[in-house]
Amino acid sequence: MSQEIRNLEPKDLWNKFADLNAVPRPSKKEDRVIKFIKDFGNSLGLETFEDEIRNVIIRKPATAGMENRKALVLQGHLDMVHQKNNDTVFDFDKQGIEMYVDGDWVRARGTTLGADNGLGVAMIMAILESNEMKHPAIEALFTIDEETGMTGALNLKAGVLRGDILLNMDTEEDDEIDIGCAGGIDVTANRSYNEEETPDGSVGYTITVKGLTGGHSGMDIHKGFGNANKIMNRLLFDGFENFGLQIAEISGGSLRNAIPRESVAKVIVAGMYDEAFVFDMQEIIGDIKTEFKTMEPNLAIEIAKSNLPEKLMDLGVQEGLLRSIYAAHNGVYRMSADMEDLVETSNNIARVLVKDGEISIQNLTRSSVETSKIDLANSLRSAYELFGCEVTFGGSYPGWTPNVKSEILDVLVNIYEKQNNEKPKVVACHAGLECGILGANYPDMDMISFGPTIHGAHSPDERASIKSSQKFYKFVLEILENIPVKN
Question: Where is the Peptidase M20 dimerisation domain positioned along the sequence (predicted)?
Fold first, then answer.
């Protein structure tokens, strides 16, 4: 771990982040980071325990003179999104994140950084360890599996927490205070298909889409970034329509909450179409790159001859697949009528897998309006069922309804304005925060979400602002000192 990270100010925040990032912590494989956090709490002599789903809770008493303040829950999630560049050799299950300083930014070498939500977790750790910060009674809630299912929040039972106010430290623009978020649902389409022998006289090709920006499938969905699965489908559809292209394999995207950056397909065409097919593909590639030249300047689409595959997808199923992905909605579906510039409903066609007689298409549909979420999910379901897929809905979680009369909101707005000589933006976001889920079992808890500036979350371009982390740290310390008194 680079010492330059540990020398950044505030040192207690960045040292805790460096400690955390040395621990592999993929979603659904949190054993090591759970042990790390429990060992940390126990080393401080604080009450530390796991709940039934393996969230970790650490309790710290109020400092002198703060005993009459409302009890506070500080919340962040332990897992991180694992994404890396195609040419980066890295084992997320075994290696700690390799960080470096680039001007005002902390970055990782070819991988996601883990600032989402590692900086929030590190801030909570710094508070728990400090003997100097003034604060009311604290419960630190470290949830698991936020990134791939909200499992920790969904399974946190009523009665475990004692706090009156919850501060979620998991948003990514330091001038925003979030009071609402989108809910989500996983839409998954699966079907099997018959494989055919590769005809004699065929020519094999590998088509690769790469170099896209990617990013968070909620926070970045409105930015017009390219979706590798949609771009690949466009290429395959044209090759099929004009030259009888047949598909052997497709592997596009990775995680549901990441806009897909890369896709690779293995295909064949008849030898008689060889030159015409390549010429046509180059024209389409040029068109696509022209369309995306502003938003995706690093987009690369390659077509190269490769070994002939032994088996191909049944042509009837292939046509249905290509047409259904063309028809399936990707991107913003509806903007909010109630909050300016807020995406209400969207979908990310996140993962497309075709291999060995099996098809899987994985989507994440988000909305701040439950009925709109189900409406779009049913639209996707219809597109996939029309070509014979079995479609399942899973991992549904609710949105977080804004409370503009929140007492803690007033506290944060006043402190922010005093510290920065301007008002913060009070917003709802299109990401899936855990507040809405936690509120189902703790309906009387006053909740707010904020955090330091992090760009490129869920992609290898993830970076955290050093200056913003200092602003965030100062903001949190004054919030702790100004928690309202108990009624």
Answer: 208-276
